[in-house]
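User: Run a structure prediction on this.
Assistant: Running it now.
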Amino acid sequence: MSAVALELDGLAVDFSGFRAVDGVSMAVAHGELRVLLGANGAGKTTLMDLISGKTKSTEGRVYVHGRDVTNQREHKIARAGVGRKFQIPSVFSGLTVRQNLEVAQSAQPGVFANLKMRLDTEAQERLDETLDLIGLTEEAETEAGVLSHGQTQWLELGMLMIQNASVILLDEPTAGMTAGETAKTAEIINRLKGKHTLLVVEHDMAFVRDIAERITVLHLGKVLAEGNVAFIENHPDVKAAYLGKQGIS
């Protein structure tokens, strides 16, 4: 059985009497891709906030590769191997695609200090492999500010990959994308399975079907159901609370 990369044990947060996340327990294996489903207000993004340290929990624990990172500062959780990609990408628009990846790859503080460093052969090969994986080899010398929305999303995903984030949190990675960009994003994410552990919040059901191995459904801050696509789309409680009659299609 694969080692657990991300474990939540009774995780909860109370906002003045409102429990946005209410006793969530979940174990995500190393290399697994887990999808979080749920209606608006189910607690999906808040759960990501608790894992990444953006929001402090009031109950429960978060473990990354067995290490307790509960309520630690965001940068410490990042150093423990957690990388997060938000709906709105954050890249250096005035730098090229390659330079963005160079900055992300370097451990040196400061953007300009990073750009002055020369990458060794191994680091350069890894950067080129990342460019190929995210489909931006031809745009390597293009300024990030002129990339399409989808390309910008892929660049930010590449920046997380090159930082060696072992657990990657993706919040609606296909929001605002064209059908073609969504299909390519599914291809990229599927290629990350096994090497990275991924937790993905998504509403696009066709995309979910393309990437999902296991799905956890949240409802009113609690885990409603968990299982593969077939189990989830036929679960009566999930149909009543979220999917309705359409299933995952």
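The chain has a mean pLDDT of 89.
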